[in-house]
Amino acid sequence: xxxxxxxxxxxxxxxxxxxxxxxxxxxxxxxxxxxxxxxxxxxxxxxxxxxxxxxxxxxxxxxxxxxxxxxxxxxxxxxxxxxxxxxxxxxxxxxxxxxxxxxxxxxxxxxxxxxxxxxxxxxxxxxxxxxxxxxxxxxxxxxxxxxxxxxxxxxxxxxxxxxxxxxxxxxxxxxxxxxxxxxxxxxxxxxxxxxxxxxxxxxxxxxxxxxxxxxxxxxxxxxxxxxxxxxxxxxxxxxxxxxxxxxxxxxxxxxxxxxxxxxxxxxx
Length: 268
Hints:
Radius of gyration: 39 Å
Largest sheet: 6 strands, antiparallel, barrel
Shape: elongated
Strand content: 35-45%
């Protein structure tokens, strides 16, 4: 049986009691009218709290992911800078081949290859060598550091490079080549200015410098522009000059971390 309460448009179910005084199944208790609205408000409040909590967790996860990505990029850039500087400075001698200007730059002879003088070759004006390196010699930008028989070194200009005959046995063979070989290997003729008497070993180099600027390690060849070597993730990084060594240092991005530092080269 359906009745209307105070003219309201909300229908209610008339309640009847059984003989034992209990409400019949399916009937509605009169004191629960309006409870549905309270439950709806509570549900909306719980949903709002859940959404706020989810947004907060999402923001923290996003910040943690961004921090991890930035830290990884910074460490990769620092490691790359250290590897490059160790290779470049380790190939030379401080004072003769490179000079550091902590904290931001180092000037150096950047070695790009080595030529072993061929024994018994008809030198003429050029020097016949067996050559190996990371790129071919270029007279436009390269010079040569020459070691002579007494062990001293002289820096001269490279005038030209041309193909020569075969090199059977270098005067000072490289570690991977036996002093006497049965198979001739290709060689080149390098014309030097000024000419050097008694050359034994020749090292090709270009004059350059490394700089920390614009949050990256940059290389400058001669008077050209500074080209970035690493990502722009080295804010505040630089060289530290110790009594016996040079190190690379990157500042800590927060007080919870410690600065990163790594050995680069030894000093005389």
